[in-house]
Write a structure and sequence with these properties.
This protein is an all-alpha fold and about 170 residues long. The chain is about 50% helix and about 0% strand.
Length: about 170
Amino acid sequence: HPEAASPTSALSRLQVGTECERIGVVPEGACAHLTQEAAIFDVAKQGEVAEMVSLLRNYPMLWKSRDAGGCHPLHVAAEAGHPEFCRALFESGADVVKANEDVATPLYIAAAENHVDAALLLLDRGADVNCAASDGVTALVIACREGNPEAARLLLDLSLIHISAPTRRYA
């Protein structure tokens, strides 16, 4: 049984929608937008850590979900700047180096948005500071392009430490 959630939570909406379909109150498929995958992305955007922990406890493989752009919940949490959410996803098994369809890693996205706390957590969890997208752009380059001095400074400091490390590309 899924854990109880507040009436407005994504988990609660998911449970109500599923139950309404099961007993025939609404046609089957009418609540397709209330999938577990949609719920995990909603809470990732909003930074609802307690609700996300509940979703992951009830549906442990949700960290592997992908949205229409190929992003995982970790990408969305990094983009929104929610390090607590990132931390909870890591505890569920999320992979720090997963790239989306644009071949951008969560670190690249956090740097683009100047979310230094999220970037630092991703780096602490093993994100490769020298990893480049398919076009050769690294997190440091995107932080500079986007005018994000805090993220750029963090990444530059780490790049200098790893200067001899080869740049990896994901295709």
